[in-house]
Design a protein that fits this description.
Elements lengths: L13 E5 L4 H12 L3 E6 L2 H13 L4 E5 L5 H15 L4 E4 L14 H29 L10 E5 L12 H25 L2 E7 L6 H6 L2 H4 L2 H4 L8 H12 L10 E4 L13 H17 L10
Parallel strand pairs: 1-2, 1-4, 2-3, 4-5, 5-6, 6-7
Bound molecules: coenzyme A.
The site of coenzyme A has 14 residues, from α4 and α6.
């Protein structure tokens, strides 16, 4: 799909993207690169990183991969430092690394819960914390807003509740809090903008194959009328908007990019039936003498 943005919208900027070797993180890396940014991607698996860097470079994107686990502070520090050493500045940190699996609350061990909290919530904070000094420096004078940018990939699960996702719901609720609190503190002190994106179900990602295998996916529309799969491209375009100066006045928000999916409710009465029913109910209440209980009519 062709981008609606100018090809130089983030020209000369440097992006560090955790989980940038696959799924949504890789698409963000690709689109940032295609729009002029240099890209550092962080991930745990060397093979995945190497092939992602090769794919980016084959598109003419300046890219480098750094192995590391966001759960380890020393890895976070090393990767952020290496990115700075390699490129000389860092303009955006994207926290796209995440862990997930379907499990009922009853069957989830506390360590399983902690593992996802550690990757998604603590990992996001750790990366932000390590990147701060560079985002202060690196972003300085580059964005109209003054400082660098942070973008946290979240979810909509925790807006209501989600089956078999207690760990991720809790973790992403924390991520949204991190987004708002850092937007307040670092927006005030350093002009750093901190935003999030809450993707809906996105096709061709590790997330969707883990959380909505084909057999679930095909039935989803019956009980979630607004259910449709988005593309990784949709998330990357939202990320570009928030990264670029087009988003210079946006701070502390988590942009939902899900086609309205989280609002989805099964239609309990067909449209034609509701017309008739509604008129009949009105007529009944018009005809009802005042003060006479319905049971006496
Ligand atoms: N159901 C229930 N519990 C599970 C589980 C599952 N499918 N997968 C892992 N766990 C539990 C483990 O049993 C363990 O708890 P225990 O010690 O009490 O038994 C705990 O979670 C940690 O598992 P482990 O496999 O040691 O963690 P890991 O660090 O190797 O892997 C995961 C982390 C589990 C999040 C793994 O799925 C992962 O690496 N995911 C990254 C990719 C991803 O999920 N992408 C999708 C993004 S939406």
């Amino acid at each position: 799909m062709e981008s609606p943005f100018k090809a130089d919208i983030v020209k000369g900027k440097v992006a560090l993207i955790t989980g940038g070797g696959s799924g949504i993180g890789f698409e963000i890396s690709t689109q940032f690169g295609k729009h002029g940014a240099s890209v550092a991607i962080m991930g745990r698996r060397k093979q995945v990183l190497d092939s992602a860097v090769c794919a980016l470079q084959s598109l003419g994107i300046i890219a480098v991969g750094f192995e590391g686990d966001v759960r380890k502070q020393e890895d976070a520090r090393r990767v952020v430092e290496s990115t700075f050493k390699h490129f000389g500045h860092i303009d955006i940190l994207v926290n796209a690394a995440a862990g997930n699996f379907l499990v009922s609350a009853e069957d989830l061990s506390p360590n399983g819960f902690r593992t996802v909290m550690d990757i998604d919530s603590v990992g996001t904070f750790t990366m932000c914390h390590e990147a701060l000094k560079y985002l202060k420096k690196g972003g300085h004078g580059r964005n109209s807003s003054g400082g660098g940018v942070i973008l946290n990939i979240s979810a909509t699960l925790h807006y209501t509740a989600a089956w078999y996702q207690i760990h991720v719901s809790a973790a992403k609720a924390a991520v949204d809090s991190i987004t708002r609190n850092l937007a307040l503190e670092w927006g005030t002190d350093y002009d750093i903008r901190v935003n999030g994106i809450a993707p809906g179900p996105i096709g061709d990602t590790p997330g969707i194959s883990k959380l909505a295998p084909e057999e679930i996916n095909s039935k989803a529309r019956d009980y979630m009328p607004l259910y449709k799969l988005g593309d990784k491209w949709d998330i990357a375009m939202a990320a570009l908007y928030l990264f670029s100066d087009a988003g210079k006045y946006v701070n502390g928000t988590t942009l939902i990019v899900d086609g309205g999916h989280w609002l989805s409710r099964a239609r309990h009465i067909p449209k034609e039936a509701v017309k008739q029913l509604s008129r009949a109910v009105e007529k009944r209440s018009r005809d009802k003498p005042v003060g006479v209980p319905t049971s006496k009519l």
